[in-house]
């Protein structure tokens, strides 16, 4: 492992920071696209069914905002793929055959579906039939959602690598089942949860913008109807989001127990586990999970974590120390200790080198097959072979813990907001709606922080830690591009906000709106 | 061939009558130029292609995994 000791850890941190920055900015554009796609689809459907010009103009207004967001966000995700090839070259080489497939499908689907139907949606008013236009609007949204599906499949595979086998000849993980990759339980959960969260963000945006018109006493009928529709859509999406959230937590507990333990700051697990509402965790320091049994000032709901993680109020949930020391799962199988995983990982790494040497030297089949058998039996722990300390496999708990609470707390706030806006949309509630627009983005990003910080240190769960997946570059090169991106993306965001605000201020076409009555 | 004619008119009239769309297209084109020309060419080389001999990429990565 001499080679890896030469890796500059600052390089790993800068590469991670750059990827996080790019993904965070990219995600500022995506959820609004997915959320507004449904809202404008519903509004145009109302136009199609009622024939009222009012709904046509309403749909056109939200489509305009969708178009601004779409144009600003398009291609921002491509930079992530550049980063794979430059900063994460070992990772890209090892798993490119699997990871690249969903990304390629996404590129083709996104290009053909979205670009075709977006054009009909914007240019096709009065040129194609009402039905064809409506279909194009829905298909634009469907195209964006299918794109999200493939990106999330790729991300989910990193968190739960299934449908593949390692080929020591090519040093690559090769796909054995596309269906297993595309339909893994993690991918399905992640897709449903992420898209629903995007719908909630879209609903908050519609309610917030509509509230602004009501506060300004402009376009009141348009704003009132948009607000009601947005709040109903948001409420339904939120209800589904809660259900999917419970299922996601269950899946995480089965596939990434360390992530769940970090989210909950659960140092020592057991049966009948309570769900922590809040606790006194220092945001700037990793807590002493090796000594403490639980965080200070813990306020919790009895049995709720056991139910969330196992669907059983008395179910066993492993804590961080249990995962490090090894534990017995509910089905009776034993999860090995970290020490055992490290040993098996090191055996796999050594066997890989021996296998390649044996092949190059033309050694006998029995020697080659022996090394191959060692590789195959220990491959699930390959990444642990690079771990030297227990602390290296524990994610940074404060970020996981607080980001999870921001995500869940924000979701609850939005449910309350939608109910209030349907029940009594007073001026204070309209102000609250407006303030909730940036909050919705923070909450949405917090969800990704939970997902991505929680899987550290793995670029691929149990197989490849970040410090092995990274290229042996100097940190200054990555730092330069990080700063470059920071400036570029911030400028892009400023332009988007400026254009979006101008379009909102201009409002729906007032002359055409008069025809509504 | 009428449908081809209709598609042509859809795009031609659509682009001609754009207002806000012109600004958005300008931003998209500038963005694509920065991404594919500036960033890709000058800041994001293919690391393995630059460091491994052609056809020996697996050996290079295997060395990295020691």
Secondary-structure map with pairings?
The complex is a heterodimer of chains A (517) and B (66).
Chain A: H1 2-5, H2 9-50, H3 53-73, H4 78-87, H5 89-123, H6 130-159, E1 164-167, E2 172-175, H7 178-182, H8 185-215, H9 220-255, H10 257-264, E3 275-278, E4 299-301, H11 304-310, H12 320-325, E5 327-328, E6 334-335, H13 338-361, H14 365-378, H15 397-423, H16 427-453, E7 458-460, E8 464-465, H17 466-469, H18 475-506, H19 510-514
Antiparallel strand pairs in A: 1-2, 3-4, 5-6, 7-8
Helix pairs in contact in A: 2-3, 2-4, 2-6, 2-8, 2-16, 2-18, 3-18, 4-5, 5-6, 6-8, 8-9, 8-16, 9-10, 9-15, 10-15, 13-14, 15-16
Chain B: H1 2-16, H2 20-43, H3 47-51, H4 57-64
Could you please describe the fold and organization of this structure?
- The complex is a heterodimer of chains A (517) and B (66).
- Chain A is mainly alpha-helical and 517 residues long.
- Helices cover 71% and strands 5% of the residues of chain A.
- Chain A has helices at residues 2-5, 9-50, 53-73, 78-87, 89-123, 130-159, 178-182, 185-215, 220-255, 257-264, 304-310, 320-325, 338-361, 365-378, 397-423, 427-453, 466-469, 475-506, 510-514, and strands at residues 164-167, 172-175, 275-278, 299-301, 327-328, 334-335, 458-460, 464-465.
- In chain A, a hairpin with a 5-residue loop joins strand 5 (327-328) and strand 6 (334-335).
- Chain A is globular.
- Chain A starts with a helix and ends with a helix.
- Residues 1-5 of chain A have low confidence and may be disordered.
- By secondary structure, chain B is mainly α.
- In chain B, 79% of the residues lie in helices and 0% in strands.
- Classes of the chains: A mainly alpha (517), B mainly alpha (66).
- The A-B interface holds A 1-4, 64, 67-68, 71-72, 74-76, 78-79, 82-83, 85-87, 89-90, 92-94, 119-120, 122-124, 127-128, 169-172, 349, 352-353, 356, 468, 471-473, 480-481, 484, 488, 492, 495, 499, 503 and B 6, 9-11, 13-15, 20-21, 23-25, 27-28, 31-32, 34-35, 39-40, 43-48, 57-59, 61-66.
């Amino acid at each position: 492992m001499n080679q890896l000791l030469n890796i500059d850890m600052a390089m790993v941190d800068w590469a991670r920071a750059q990827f996080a920055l790019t993904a965070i900015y990219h995600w500022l554009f995506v959820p609004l696209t997915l959320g507004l796609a449904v809202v404008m689809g519903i509004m145009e459907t109302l136009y199609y069914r009622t024939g009222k010009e009012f709904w046509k103009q309403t749909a056109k207004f939200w489509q305009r905002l969708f178009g601004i967001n779409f144009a600003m966000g398009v291609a921002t995700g491509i930079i992530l793929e550049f980063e794979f090839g430059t900063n994460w070259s070992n990772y890209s080489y090892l798993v490119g055959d699997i990871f690249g497939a969903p990304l390629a499908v996404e590129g083709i689907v996104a290009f053909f579906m979205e670009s075709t139907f977006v054009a009909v949606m914007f240019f096709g008013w009065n040129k194609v039939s009402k039905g064809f236009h409506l279909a194009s609007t829905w298909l634009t949204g469907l195209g964006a959602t299918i794109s999200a599906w493939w990106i999330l499949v790729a991300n989910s595979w990193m968190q739960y690598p299934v449908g593949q086998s390692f080929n020591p000849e090519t040093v690559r993980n090769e796909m054995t089942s596309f269906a297993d990759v595309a339909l893994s339980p993690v991918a399905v959960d992640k897709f449903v949860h992420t898209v629903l969260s995007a719908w909630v963000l879209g609903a908050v945006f519609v309610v917030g913008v509509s509230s602004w018109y009501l506060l300004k006493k402009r376009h009141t009928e348009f704003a009132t109807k948009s607000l009601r529709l947005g709040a109903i859509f948001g409420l339904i999406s939120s209800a589904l989001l809660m259900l999917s959230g419970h299922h996601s937590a269950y899946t995480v507990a089965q596939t990434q127990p360390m992530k769940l333990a970090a989210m909950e700051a659960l140092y020592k697990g057991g049966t009948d586990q309570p769900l922590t509402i809040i606790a006194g965790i220092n945001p700037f320091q990793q807590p002493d999970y090796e000594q403490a049994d639980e965080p200070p000032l813990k306020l919790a709901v009895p049995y709720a974590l056991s139910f969330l993680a196992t669907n059983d109020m008395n179910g066993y949930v492993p804590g961080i120390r249990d995962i490090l020391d090894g534990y017995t799962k509910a089905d009776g199988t034993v999860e090995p200790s970290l020490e055992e995983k490290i040993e098996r990982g090191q055996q796999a790494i050594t066997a890989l080198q021996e296998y390649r040497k044996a092949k190059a030297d033309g050694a006998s089949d029995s020697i080659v097959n022996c090394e191959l058998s060692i590789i195959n039996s220990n491959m699930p722990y390959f990444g642990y072979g690079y771990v030297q300390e227990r602390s290296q496999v524990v994610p940074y708990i404060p970020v996981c813990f607080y980001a999870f609470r921001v995500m869940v707390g924000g979701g609850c706030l939005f449910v309350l907001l939608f109910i209030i806006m349907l029940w009594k949309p007073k001026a204070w509630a309209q102000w609250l709606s407006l303030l909730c627009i940036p909050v919705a983005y923070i909450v949405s990003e917090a969800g990704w922080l939970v997902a991505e910080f929680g899987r550290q240190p793995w670029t691929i769960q149990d197989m490849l830690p970040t410090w092995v997946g990274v290229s042996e570059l100097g940190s200054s090169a990555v730092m330069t591009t990080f700063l470059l991106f920071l400036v570029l993306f911030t400028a892009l965001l400023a332009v988007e906000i400026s254009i979006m605000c101008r379009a909102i201020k201009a409002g729906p076409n007032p002359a055409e709106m008069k025809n509504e009555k | 061939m009428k449908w081809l004619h209709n598609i042509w008119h859809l795009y031609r009239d659509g682009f001609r009558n754009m207002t806000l769309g012109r600004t958005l297209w300008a931003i998209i084109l500038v963005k694509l130029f920065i991404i594919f020309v500036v960033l890709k060419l000058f800041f994001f080389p293919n690391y393995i292609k630059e460091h491994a001999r052609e056809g020996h990429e697996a050996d290079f990565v295997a060395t990295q995994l020691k």
